[in-house]
Amino acid sequence: MRVIYIILLACLFVPTLNAQTPALIEDIFPGNEDSSPTRFNRLGDKLIFRAETPDEGVEPWISDGTPEGTFLLKDINTDPDLSRGNSNPDNFTFYQGKFYFKARSSGFGDELWVTDGTPENTVLLKDIQEGDGNGNPFDFIVYEGKLYFTANNGTNSSELWVTDGTEEGTQLVVDIQEGGGPGNPNFKTIFQDKLFFTANDGLVGNELWMSDGTEEGTMLVKDIRDGGNASPSQYFEHNGELYFRANDGNVGTELWKTDGTEEGTVLVRDIREGSSSSSPSDFFTLGDSLFFVANDGDGKELWITGGDSASTRKFIDLNPEGASDPREIIIATENEVVVFVADTSDADNGGQFYSIFGEGGEIELFPIPEVMEDLPGADPEDVVYTGTSLYFSYESPETGREIAVYNAALDEGQALPETVPGPGGDVDDITLILNQVYFEAEDSTNGAELWGFTPLTAYVNLIPEPGAIVLQTGDTLDFGVVTPGFSSSISLNAVHTGTDPTIFLENDLEDLSAPFSGNAALLELVISPGDNILTDLLTFAPTAVGTFVDSIDIDVQALGILPNKLYLKGATAFGQLGLSAEATSINRDGELDFGDVPTGRDSTISVSLANDGVGMLVISSLGLNNGADFSAATLADTLAPGESISVEVSFSPTEIGDFRDTLTVVTNDEGGDYSIALVGTAIVNSVVEQGLPARAVFPNPANDEVTIALASPLQDGKWRIFNASGQLVRNGVWPQGLSLHQLPVRGLPSGIYHVEVSGNGGRLTAKVIKR
Known about the structure:
By secondary structure, this protein is mainly beta.
């Protein structure tokens, strides 16, 4: 599996430099002066930042990556005597579709501002310290639908505040250090649905606190350092516990954790023994393990812990001759792959990329030595990950600090065109906003200004066929209703609409449980722009009754819609047999009556077998009990819902009398087999046909009417009835175009009569007994 996870980091590298050529976006400070754009943050699909101009000073700006879309949001500080006209916006924090930040203005000082990305809606939210004093809001965090921060109203110095985005909803939560001293709540984080932070109540120093957002719910968790400042920081939640670093006054700044209680707040390990500090930092999770950077006296290296002293150890010493100083940590794939930069013992190579992979509880480290093979001493900084490639700045004597891209599929890096030809490159603050990279670069013509380029990115959508619905994480693939013994399949197509080839990785189809199964077209599949490739075939083949669910995880390294987890659903149902004859339904255990049929003749009825259910109807057999006087075609078929088939059933008596048989239809209908009684009466065959064929004359003997059934409709027909002496006793006109008509014999004396029907160029006669 090692190869698969190495490929996980990136796509097949194709150098398309036109799409990733750095270019100046806007010379914000005209000429060769520096606008020094910095504090880059994403607001929707735009970049919000601060920059300096000769007339407005350092103010908030916004950009969509084009010159015309790059403009000043507001000249907040118009007083040149206050901070040289600079508002110095800072601490940008996104909340409810807007950015909240600190900025300085004349008459208000450093206060709380808000913007939605338009000049007209860039406004002061509240003058927390009224007048020209500084409210100085900082350390913002969104918690329980509100924005919490630290601020100074002049009476309560640097305490916990909250806002709901309105002036009246911006207010003090609690005065932690009463009497005007700063409680200074800082390093806020959310743990166990509470705010945890560092604060000073003036009694126990800077210690661990928590709050539920109310004054009464704000309290000290533990006084870690008796009589001094423990100064906890670097909070990070892992496996239901909050890890951090703190100094108890005995062992220096070391690794601690808390479960939210005083007794559950404990030292994990004194990594650098004695009073010196290992200063753990840069926590991240990989699999079930917690990693961090610490210095045990031999320099900063990568450490790992399971939550106790025994399991806390150095993961690897990448630089035995000094500190590897792991940094630029990128979570390339959450909980699976981490990329970072570290120094090696080879001073000529500078910082190099490393990657850690976790699979099945095993964690392995892999160096990526070839990443800057042609750029010795690269020292990568400002690393960003597009989902397929790593972009970063590098340093060389020939170019200065410029931008390169690394692709793990080929395990090689490539420099992008230089911002400044020659050794003068000075790139900083590389930031990815959707499909645009922004950064600061300095040249002799324009100074330090805003630059950018469009990186190569992969946009891969997963689409089931048939259909055109783009799948998203959490979507359900519904196989519908399937009859046990049958199957339904769904194919998944990966459709690439981006610019960077990527890898469709092995998924967990082998972990599917019956009745679901999957067949991967390819375990590792390079998907290039424009491709529409079948990746997986999923099958639902139930053998039992019920509703079934399962799920699959799919790895596609791309910026498109990533269906990391898809749910599978299928249900079962059998078919339902519906029987009818001449548009009349026949119930289970019902009867099919053929009436009176002259001996030597036959009567045939078309029986319809339909699937009235939602599952497949399997007709295993259709047969008669004895088949002496009745007959039917044998049948074995499968009908989809709504389908039907017809079977001819005939009664062909050879002797006078009453006859019965049973027609049995064996299916997978849960109601069981259909057993239909067939009945018929054989009467005297007294019909003489002279060019006019008949099907039947019944009943015979008759009481009130005798029915004449012709083989075809009669045109211009007549009928007559004669007694045994040959006298005409009844006559009439045959209804035009009918093949069946009832002749009245009611009221005639009992005896033998002769019936005559003529028309269609022929006639027939029949002897009828009147009871």
